[in-house]
Amino acid sequence: MKTIVLGIGNPILGDDGVGVHVVNELKKQINNPNITIDEAITGGMNLLDLILGYDKAIIVDAVKSNDGKNGEVKRIPLSSFSAMHSCNPHDVSLIEAVQMAKKMGENRIPQGIIVIGVMMKEIPCEFGEKLSKKIATAVPKAVEMTLNEIKKYEKS
Amino acid sequence: MKTVTIDPITRLEGHGKISIFLDAKGDVENAYLQIPELRGFERFAQGRRAEDMPQITSRICGVCPVAHHFASTKALDDAFNVEPPSAAKKLRELMYCGYFIYDHILHFYYLGAPDFVVGPDAPPAKRNVLGVIEKAGLEIGKEVIKHRAYGQKITAILGGKATHPVCGLPGGVSKSLSKDEVKEIEKMAKSTVEFAKFSLKLFDDIVLKNKNYVDLILSDPYTLKTYNMGLVDKNNKVNFYDGKIRVTDQKGKEFVKFDVKDYYKNIAEHVEEWSYVKFTYLDSIGWKGFRDGKESGIYRVGPLGRLNAAEGMATPLADKEYKRFYETLGGKAVNSTLAFHWARLIELLYAAERAMELVKDPEITSKNVRNPVGGAGEGFGVTEAARGTLIHHYKLDKNGLIDKANLIVATTNNAGAINMSVRDAAKGVIKKGKVNDGLLNMVEMAFRAYDPCFACATHTLPGGMPLEVDIYDHDKKLYKRLRQNL
Questions:
Q1: Less Cβ around it within 10 Å: N or C end of chain B?
Q2: Is B161 contained in some domain?
């Protein structure tokens, strides 16, 4: 069983980089040849490229909440997103990329794609390397949930 | 006054929002596309080591990391007073071709083509890349995926990492190419030339042979007679990586040609209170509001801007297509916003052909890829991002730290024109307060053509992504809301 954990985000855009902060923590705690931990500043097709060939993919990212809540961490299977932003204005979303790849007969798509989402009221538009207080407190929670997710796969 | 708001924007994510203001009769008075720009870059950059800038700026935007990386690297060449060896320049340009290949393929097939292949009136659920493939066939879908990946692969081979390149250094690049890598790139470039030819034929068959589409392309709401801007080589041919900035007028005549060092003598910025984004214009003409024509300093950049600002393409097949483009659309300049899509495919062909030329150049495997740097000073760098001219300007202190940084990005260059295109498209579809359901897409098509780059935080996964149109009455009270969940 090969798993990839990807922290998504822009490390120079404040809270947007929370996924990167989470995987930096995970790197200190995990040392297992079957688990790849990496960061990426991309989405859609490029993101799909990075997770192809793994059995499971765990994506840690900022998620804009609909209810204005800030700093909660949620486990969201990719399939339950009704729609999603891609990382940039002109890529497709990961959901679309996966649908497209399936249609093309791609057989290396991970069986499970799970998002560990740090819910945010607003995704920042101001440059900076630090997380806000509220989002920083979400990091240990996101780390723990990711570790649980990994354990779940190991058992199955 | 009624206000119509489209927010957020489908298939062009970011935080863009369109507000349409109606007059007392219910016709469109004005329309704005609001783009909240990323803020505070100058402050963020201050005091950092100059040589970190190519890595930092490649993270500004998830769309154009390669463009920022090299605009920045070129600004550092200049700031450290060093000319890169000729092989290094060629390697940078080759990588740039890879970037254009994946970027243009992505834009055309995933974002532009749904409107033409599936149709502008098709239901949104069908108006996407899957709809395109349904209509064009699975085999074509495979080719699209394959060649987009080729573009990525080429940039990855040259850049270290495809998503944020690390190869550019002041005075050159960090890595030369092996003979095996050259062979691999050649194979991919060759295949992409064929794919680009095929894509142009597809555009012919599906768009140009359909009178309705040609009429739409040439229609008034999608026409804007602005100046055009782009980088050109010494023969005034389109170049993505280097050259002089050339501006042509509404008839395609040269208005001014300048070195990036003189950008602030030629380009000025206008501020509107409702927008974070500044609007650039030609200083010698001045800001005359959101209008086109010779008297207004607004200009366009990007594929159409570049073709209009040049006198041809530097590779044979693309140049042939260039000529056909102008013959078909009535000579220079082409002022049809939707012609951006066609121009994009011509550039795809050029990028693939140019990549072939570069890999066949014996110098491409040279190990001499970096020259030593001189003392720190001030530097200017310019490249063509896929969506238009991109300028980086740094002032360094004596320790090589950034004292001041200023960037002019492609979407800023296009911001004035995008707003006018949105307004004109809205005028075409909203009459006497009647808001047509097809409005959303017709308005979106107007700015999607520019492929604008909104504030790109890299968050991948927000929840629902509805398209919203808010209509307000005279007292700005909401009386109608159209929603479209995707």
A1: N
A2: yes
Measured in whole angstroms, how far is the alpha carbon of residue B452 from the centre of its chain?
A: 6
Which of A:34-73 have CB within 8 Å of B? 40-47, 49, 59, 61-66
Q: How confident is the model at residue B422 (pLDDT cuts 50, 70, 90)?
A: confident
Contacts of A3 (CB under 8 A, 6+ apart): A34, A35, A36, A54, A55, A56, A57, A58, A150, A153
* Domain final residue pick, B371, B386, B421: B371
- Within 14-33 of A, beta carbons closer than 8 Å to B belong to 16
A92: contact with B, CB 8 A cutoff: yes
Q: Which residues contact B169 (CB under 8 A, 6 or more apart)?
A: B51, B54, B73, B76, B370
Phi and psi at B433, nearest 5°, equal: 75, -5
Q: Are residues B147 and B25 in the same domain?
A: no
Cα separation of B172 and B302, whole Å? 26
Q: Identify which of A6, A3, A17, A5 has the alpha carbon closest to the alpha carbon of residue A132.
A: A17
Q: Is residue B1 predicted with pLDDT exceeding 70?
A: no
Question: DSSP letters along B328-383, please?
Answer: HTTSSPP-BTTHHHHHHHHHHHHHHHHHHHHHHSGGGG-S--B-------EEEEEE
Chain B partners of A123 at a C-beta cutoff of 8 Å?
15, 457, 459, 462
> Within A15-62, where are the H helices?
18-29, 44-51
Contacts of B449 (CB under 8 A, 6+ apart): B112, B337, B338, B340, B341, B421
Give CA–CA dist B61/B452, Å, rounded: 12
- Write out the residue range of the structural domain in which residue A111 sits: 3-155
Domain that holds residue B480: 2-34+442-484
Encode pLDDT of B279-314 as tens digits.
Answer: 999 999 999 999 999 999 999 999 999 999 999 999
Looking at the domain assignment, is residue B359 inside a domain? Answer: yes
Number of domains in chain B: 2
Count of A–B CB contacts within 8 Å?
A: 176
Strand partners, B392: B381, B407
3-state SS track over B137-187: CHHHHHHHHHHHHHHHHHHHHHHCCCCCCCCEECCEECCCCCHHHHHHHHH
- The pLDDT assigned to B266 comes to 98
Instruction: Please give the backbone phi and psi of residue B297, each rounded to the nearest 5 degrees, phi first.
Output: -80, 5
Residue B88 sits in the same domain as residue B180: yes
pLDDT in tens, A48-103: 889 999 999 999 988 877 677 889 999 988 877 655 544 444 456 788 788 888 88
Mark whether B152 and B28 lie in a shared domain: no
Could you tell me if residue B404 is inside a domain? no
Domain count, chain A: 1
**Token pair for residue A97?**
């990329």
A41/B128 CB distance under 8 A:
no
Chain A positions in Cβ-Cβ contact with residue B460 (cut-off 8 Å): 8, 43-44, 47, 59, 61, 84-87, 93-94
Asked if the structure places residue B324 within a domain, the reply is no
Instruction: Tell me, yes or no, whether B26 and B113 share the same domain.
Output: no
Q: How far is A77 from chain B (nearest CA, A)?
A: 11
Q: What is the CATH number of the domain that holds B209?
A: 1.10.645.10
